[in-house]
Design goal:
The protein has a single domain, classed as Rossmann fold, CATH 3.40.50. About 30% of the residues lie in helices and about 25% in strands. The protein is built from five helices and nine strands; from the N terminus they run E-E-E-H-E-E-H-E-H-E-H-E-H-E. Strand 6, helix 3 and strand 7 form a beta-alpha-beta unit. Bound molecules: guanosine-5'-diphosphate. Guanosine-5'-diphosphate (GDP) binds next to helix 1.
């Protein structure tokens, strides 16, 4: 079955667990620190401009956005974290919402975690990786903003990401640039393989 990424539609924004989607369509969850480029990665993946909102006020959007992709899977945009200027109340709200989402991980076929290729992952990134690990579902890491690295920095930085997040062999780390499009194909293949495990998946 080929999936047409052009058939992407916003479904809903869940501010509390009662709004979580629980139908049997697989979910691919995206997480990342505010400003890491999560919206840009999603837009690049879907080949859209301004589909997921780029540059939304960081830390102000504590809800989970669901996009349906050609009826084949939900792309689940988890709220960004780690923005310095959020109140304790907002941080708590983030934690509670995530806790409830991850309490029920059966629907998540793949977790995608976006980090900044330039930097050592933060303590918040490590916490996020632990959420994914504890969910017991496969997850991969997208090292975004690769275009900002010198060639010689790429390998050591990817290695530092692996070590800091305590990734295993099974966790892919995909060098990515939402700006240039680097890594899109690899990310797409990993997602399609997770939502259509039986066949070699293709993009229409
Ligand atoms: P979000 O808060 O994680 O959704 O981040 P955004 O998608 O809004 O991006 C934050 C900023 O990083 C914006 O100014 C983007 O243009 C920029 N950005 C995102 N991805 C890349 C990338 O791959 N390379 C570069 N150079 N800038 C990027």
């Amino acid at each position: 079955m080929a999936i047409n990424l052009q058939k992407a539609e916003f479904v809903l924004s869940a501010a509390s667990p009662k709004d979580f989607l629980r139908d049997p369509i697989p979910q691919v969850a995206f997480a990342g620190r505010s400003n890491v480029g999560k919206s840009s990665v999603i837009n690049r993946l879907l080949g859209r401009k301004n589909f997921a909102r780029v540059g939304a006020a960081p830390g102000k959007t504590i809800h989970i956005n669901y996009f349906r992709i050609d009826g084949a899977f939900y792309l689940v945009d988890l709220p960004g974290y780690g923005y310095a200027r959020v109140s304790k109340g907002e941080r708590d709200r983030w934690g509670k919402l995530m806790e409830r989402y991850f309490a029920d991980p059966e629907l998540m076929t793949l977790g995608v975690m976006i980090v900044d290729a330039r930097h050592k992952p933060t303590a918040d990134d490590c916490t996020m990786a632990q959420w994914y690990r504890d969910a017991g579902r496969p997850f991969l890491v997208v090292a975004n903003k690769l275009d900002k690295l010198k060639k010689s920095e790429i390998e050591p930085n990817l290695q530092r990401i692996r070590e800091t997040l305590e990734l295993g062999e099974e966790n892919l780390v995909i060098p990515f640039s939402a700006e240039k499009g680097t890594g899109r194909e690899e990310l797409l293949q990993a997602i399609l393989a997770s939502v259509e495990p039986a066949e070699a998946a293709t993009e229409e």
